[in-house]
Amino acid sequence: MIIDAHTHVFPEGVREDPEAWGRRDPVFRLVYVEGKARMAGAGDTLEAMDEAGVDRAVLCSFPWRDPDPARESNEYILECIERWPDRFVGFCCVNPAWGAAALREAGRCLERGMRGIGELHPEPQGFHPGDSDLLRPLVDLAREADVPLMLHVNEPVGHVYVGKGGITPRAVYPLVKAFPEVDWILSHWGGGLLFYELMPEVAEACRRVHYDSAASPFLYRPEIYAFAARLAGPHRLLFGTDFPLVGYRRALKDFEGAGLEEEAAREVLGGNAARLLRLRGVREGSPGGGKEN
User: Fold this and answer.
1) In a domain, 292, yes or no
2) Alpha carbon distances (Å) from 24 to 19, 65, 104
3) How much is the pLDDT for 204?
4) Helix H segments across the chain?
5) pTM attached to this predicted model
6) Backbone phi, then psi, for 276, in 5-degree steps?
7) Domain-embedded: residue 46
8) Is residue 285 a part of any domain in this protein?
9) Is 289's pLDDT higher than 70?
């Protein structure tokens, strides 16, 4: 079973008129209007999954700053997981800075079947990961619902690209240390936080941290999987693409070059995500991409 733990989808209206949505969110404009980053809908994602033999995918939206576009995107993801429950897993987009409104929206989405909260992104959403008072209510909700929180993290060195910012291991380590009772997914290999798990106190604080490999071919050589498995353990690694930023052919070829042992490879490709997200069963047959509503 292959589970992609990190993809992004957008409603048809966003894909057809990104300029209008860019006027609602300056960071969205930077990435998808000025940067012309690719966007996908459910049909695009299903078609790519079927071609690559991927069983399930976690659908995230964009880390919208304001509530209205976030709710519209969440509603689209809810429609996707209700229509294709054996193929898609939904994560809820909220901004902790909304306060009580974030809790209401996250609660609504979780009640309707979403399995996680995120991808949170502090810089475009305008909050600081060290603000534990702001984040505590959302963390408490995730803990009570037994779902993970996904947080965008960037590596502090290396090449510059659109979307790279200051949310690095130094910024997020105090957050996971402050809330050890909840499961975290730190995107993009946690910006390299896993390398610091050679320090015993960091390893202890990160016991419930999972690292996904989203956008890995743009960031690291394939050996990152083997290094990560040695440092954090293969049971805490999640295969993720950041689709459609990275296609499945490239991501899976990258994974195949990692040199993981067979059992560890199975866990990273799907077993770990299935346990973390409480998934049951695998795909039977292939429903195909189909047409969207």
Assistant:
1) no
2) 9, 9, 22
3) 97
4) 12-16, 18-22, 26-28, 42-52, 67-83, 100-111, 122-125, 132-145, 169-178, 200-205, 216-219, 224-232, 248-256, 262-266, 272-276
5) 0.94
6) -60, -40
7) yes
8) no
9) no
pLDDT of residue 81: 98
Please name which of 138, 132, 145, 140 lies closest in space to residue 120, comparing C-alpha atoms: 138
Tokens of 220: 């690291």
Mean pLDDT (whole number) for 138-150: 98
Closest listed residue to residue 91, CA positions, set 43, 57, 42, 140:
57
Residue 287: inside a domain = no
Report whether pLDDT(89) > 60.
yes
State the residue range of the domain holding 189: 3-276
Read off the pLDDT of residues 167-219 as tens digits, 9 standing for 90 and up. Answer: 999 999 999 999 999 999 999 999 999 999 999 999 999 999 999 999 999 99
Residue 292 has pLDDT above 50, yes or no: no
Q: What is the distance between the alpha carbons of residues 151 and 212, in angstroms, rounded to a whole number? A: 10
pLDDT confidence band for 267 (50 / 70 / 90): very high
Strand partners, 89: 58
265: Cβ contacts below 8 Å, ≥ 6 apart: 255, 258
Strands 149-151 and 184-186 turn out to be parallel
48 C-beta neighbours (distance < 10 Å), count: 21
- 91 touches 60 (CB < 8 A): yes
Distance between CA atoms of residues 173 and 176, nearest Å:
5
Contact 138, 99 (CB under 8 A): no
- Report residue 164's pLDDT band, with 50, 70 and 90 as the boundaries: confident
For 97-123, what is each residue's pLDDT tens digit? 999 999 999 999 999 999 999 999 999
Q: What CATH number does the domain containing 66 carry? A: 3.20.20.140
52: Cβ contacts below 8 Å, ≥ 6 apart: 2, 248, 249, 252
Phi, psi (rounded to 5 degrees) for 150: -105, 130
Query: Does 18 have pLDDT greater than 80?
Result: yes
Q: How many structural domains does the chain have?
A: 1
